[in-house]
TrEMBL record:
Pfam families: LplA-B_cat (PF21948). Keywords: Acyltransferase, Transferase. It comes from the Bacteria. One of its GO terms (molecular function) is lipoyl(octanoyl) transferase activity. It is an enzyme of class 2 (transferase). Its EC number is 2.3.1.181. InterPro entries: aa-tRNA-synth_II/BPL/LPL (IPR045864), BPL_LPL_catalytic (IPR004143), Octanoyltrans_LipM/LipL (IPR050664). One of its GO terms (biological process) is protein lipoylation. This is Octanoyltransferase LipM. The keyword Translocase does not apply. It comes from Aneurinibacillus soli.
């Protein structure tokens, strides 16, 4: 059975979290590491925006600061995510790996199998969003969980895990959020809307489109409860053995540089 790395890098700042993802991608592109699955957490709770979003147009940055939230732009696309009370994962693997299809949507399907297995191990019935059905689901706000994309995880039609993907240097990086609990009021307080009436209407609609794990369970789970399930889920989904590992000295050095010079810099975070 093929062995991949399992990295649990714990709690980090928004800049460091995004820097580690890019550093792992870069060093893997140089053939120095095996494919990896990484789990991580955020301090403080953080608003992340997709690479193509316009920060000041879509996000009320004064309210982000008022709530004491972190802020960072991802290297991946997609919409706004509030990283709080969730398990965040990332998968880094070469585009040329036998498991990886050439198309982005098909790669989502492969990686999402690991998430699906994780939910099953928690005793939950989740499904992959059908690509044909996804074509007819339009987001009504800048929030990521407002609409599922092809092969994202849904429970009874409501999105429970959101992911984003980029391909750089011949490597696939997909990362995403698995919601344990959800503070939709806080999320919608930092997203810009034309007026309060529109905000309230879209917030009510959002509750019908997104759901967190602990809303679906009689017995709530914690971050430490779900990690083993999703670690095993990814191992089963990829049919690999996940070997516990740490970041290499090169990855650590590059991540520190990227956190300082890129993800912690206003030129990157507010560029659009």
């Amino acid at each position: 059975m093929e062995q991949w790395r399992f990295l649990d890098t714990g709690t980090n700042s928004p800049a460091v979290n995004m820097a580690i993802d890019e550093a792992v991608l870069t060093i893997h592109s140089e053939g120095k590491t095996k494919p990896s699955v990484r789990f991580y957490d955020w301090s403080p709770a953080t608003v992340s925006i997709g690479y193509f979003q316009k920060a000041e147009k879509e996000i009320d940055l004064a309210r982000v600061q008022k709530h004491g939230l972190g802020f960072v732009r991802r290297a991946t696309g997609g919409r706004t995510v509030l990283h709080d009370k969730e398990l965040t994962y990332s998968v880094v693997v070469s585009e040329n790996h036998p498991l990886m299809p050439s198309g982005v949507t098909d790669a989502y399907r492969i990686i999402s199998q690991g998430l699906l297995e994780g939910f099953r191990l928690l005793g939950m019935q989740a499904d992959l969003m059908n690509p044909e059905a996804a074509k007819f689901v339009e987001p009504s706000s800048a929030a990521c969980f407002d609409a599922p994309s092809s092969y994202e995880l849904v429970v009874e039609g409501r999105k429970v895990a959101g992911s984003a993907q980029t391909r750089q240097k011949g490597v696939v990086l997909q990362h995403g959020s698995i919601l344990l609990d959800m503070d939709a009021e806080l999320l919608f307080d930092i997203i810009r809307f034309p007026n309060e009436r529109v905000r309230d209407r879209l917030l009510q609609s959002f509750y019908e489109k997104a759901v967190a794990i602990n809303e679906l369970r009689k017995q709530p789970v914690t971050l430490e409860d779900v990690k083993p399930a999703f670690r095993e889920g990814f191992a089963r989904g990829f049919a690999v053995e996940l070997i516990e590992d740490g970041l290499t000295p090169e990855e650590l050095e590059l991540a520190e540089q990227l956190a300082r010079e890129k993800y912690g810099d206003a030129d990157w975070n507010f560029r659009r």
